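Review form for a predicted model. The reviewer records the input and the model, then writes brief findings.
Reviewer: anonymous (R2)
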Amino acid sequence: MSDAAIFAIVFVSIFVLRIIAATLVFCWILPEGDRCPNCNAVTIRMQSRGLLRYMRWFRSSWCLTCGWSGLLRNGPATSAPTEAERPLTHKR
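Model under review:
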């Protein structure tokens, strides 16, 4: 086998392994559930477009509290807001 073919095989395999490693790290750092990674408030699910429509293990989310939008992994849903998320009522 020529040196150019060996170089091409090694270069392509390193490139493919780098893409696989980056994908695995990306999936590992995505939070699971329906909580915002910034403020820990409950997020709402947005309609997915494009490729996310076929990847059901991710969900597009938007936080009403801080305005964060991004991807989350599917996980347990929060049923009731915590004390910190309940709106404050002003006494007059």
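Findings: The CA atoms of residues 2 and 49 lie 46 Å apart.
Further findings: The helical segments are 3-29.
Recommendation: see findings above.
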